[in-house]
Specification:
Elements lengths: L3 E4 L5 E3 L13 E4 L7 H11 L37 E2 L2 H7 L3 E6 L9 H15 L4 E4 L3 H13 L3 E6 L5 H9 L3 E5 L3 H11 L6 E2 L5 H7 L1 H9 L7 E5 L4 H16 L9 E7 L4 H7 L25 H10 L3 E5 L1 H12 L7 H15 L8 E6 L7 H10 L15 H7 L1
Parallel strand pairs: 5-13, 6-7, 6-9, 7-8, 10-11, 10-13, 11-12
Antiparallel strand pairs: 1-2, 1-3, 4-5
Helix pairs in contact: 3-4, 3-7, 4-5, 7-9, 8-9, 9-11, 12-13
The structure holds pyridoxal-5'-phosphate and zinc ion.
């Protein structure tokens, strides 16, 4: 049986081949696979037998799981850069500081363009090319732009990205430009750019690569599959992820639902999702606090530019994910995020600001007892340390934190060198 698209609001069904990204009723579409063909043992054997493969598509940490990503896509249509296969780091100092039995960081900054967006992009771009798309568009806080530019190049399809002027880290803009995308700066915020894309992409003949595109989320599910595989298929108690447009939140919820369906994890051992937003862009947190009685929107801005989003497109799917996993939503101020970033960076790998909202949130959750010392926690680090160098440099030049590490300048003499050692 073929996979299909099902509206999360009204339940109407569409062919996956239709390439639709929204239901006629306006709500989001979700890819639904026939998982009855996938048994637990077949699943674990297949994924395991491909582990360590040197050639694509099996060498990809997305396509290794292709039976649960896009079973209808012929192998020769896969456009991959060998994404995924990211490390699960242990930083013992942080484990002690948080005060839990087990803490790991799944570093999605280790993807080809430096963020988890590559996992979704390989799926969305492969499928769109299979459907015959001629040009791509995405609104972006930066990493989607870098990833779309890269995978568009791999597919030989032109890419237009819309970014909010003055609100995107330099590393990301430089990638999009260098990889050859048409970069359009919008005088406004991300939500303005997103609205422009949602309303007009199809009239302009452009295929949307934002996470409103349900196929992208199929690729992003593999963050969870791969993390579970790295843990010998034992689920942790908590998965912590930053929330912006809430694509990951939605994808993680779907991955966990499907894993219960296939029998990889039991219904009573589903990890709880904790979504951390930046206080300056925390509409999902506000909605959660209001028990999801209404969708709250709006943002005032944050240094974690990747999650500077006031009207997350995946709201309804993300809400389902929180409800299914008995999860929670919290937020962290810019100071808390940068302080957590300094702690994480000091362990010698580091991540961009938005990723560090996870540690900032976790520290708060453990302090107030929501996360217990006996529990196991996996934080998802979404973007590479080098994406936003000015945030790091400004922190170490200016912040009053005890974690500041200032540069010193000396005359070229032994005397001067000895004085600063
Ligand atoms: C896109 C992005 C996010 C936000 O992810 P959503 O799935 O939109 O919630 C978080 N961190 C980084 C580094 C990103 O690039
Ligand atoms: Zn509908």
């Amino acid at each position: 049986m073929k996979s299909k698209l099902v509206c999360v609001g009204c339940g109407r069904e569409y062919l996956l081949l239709s390439g639709a990204s929204r239901c006629e009723c306006g709500d989001l579409l979700e890819v639904v696979h026939d998982l009855s063909q996938i048994t637990l043992s077949k699943w674990i054997c297949l994924a395991g037998s491909r582990l360590g493969a040197r050639t694509l598509p099996n060498a990809s940490g997305v396509w290794r799981y292709r039976e649960a990503v896009l079973p209808d896509l012929p192998d020769e249509k896969i456009i991959s850069r060998g994404e995924g296969n990211t490390r699960l780091y242990e930083f013992p100092v942080l484990t002690g500081m948080v005060g839990v039995k087990y803490l790991r960081f799944k570093h999605e900054g280790e993807n080809p363009t430096g963020s988890f967006k590559d996992r979704g992009m390989t799926a969305a771009v492969s499928w769109a090319k299979h459907l015959g798309s001629r040009a791509f568009v995405a609104a972006s806080t930066g990493n989607t732009a870098a990833s779309a530019a890269s995978y568009g190049r791999a597919a030989g399809i032109p890419v237009v990205v819309l970014i909010p002027e003055g609100r995107v880290a330099q590393g990301k803009i430089s990638q999009a430009l260098a990889y050859g995308a048409k970069v359009v700066k919008v005088r406004g915020n991300f939500d303005d750019a997103m609205r422009l894309v949602s309303k007009h992409a199809s009239d302009l003949g452009l295929h949307v690569l934002n996470s409103i595109n349900p196929v992208r989320l199929e690729g992003q599910k593999t963050i969870i599959w791969e993390m579970l595989e790295q843990r010998g298929w034992r689920p942790p108690n908590w998965i912590i992820v930053p929330g912006g447009n809430l694509g990951n939140t939605a994808a993680f919820g779907k991955a966990l639902r499907e894993m219960v369906e296939v029998g990889v994890i039991r219904a009573n051992e589903v990890p709880r999702l904790a979504v951390i937003q930046a206080s300056g862009a925390s509409p999902f947190y506000s909605s959660w606090k209001a028990s999801f009685s209404k969708k709250i929107v709006g943002s005032s801005g944050t240094i974690a530019s990747a999650i500077d989003i006031g009207d997350p497109v995946n709201y309804s799917k993300a809400r389902k994910a929180i409800e299914f996993t008995n999860g929670l939503v919290d937020c962290a101020t810019d100071d808390e995020i940068m302080e957590a970033k300094a702690l994480l960076d000091r362990e010698g790998v580091g991540a961009e600001p938005a990723s560090c909202a996870t540690l900032a949130g976790l520290l708060k959750l453990s302090r107030r007892g929501a996360v217990q010392p006996s529990e196991s926690v996996v934080c998802v680090l979404t973007g590479h340390f080098l994406k936003d160098q000015s945030a790091t440099l400004n922190f170490h030049e200016r912040s009053g934190s005890v974690l500041v590490n200032k540069t010193v300048t000396i005359d070229p003499t032994l005397d001067a060198l000895e004085r600063v050692l």
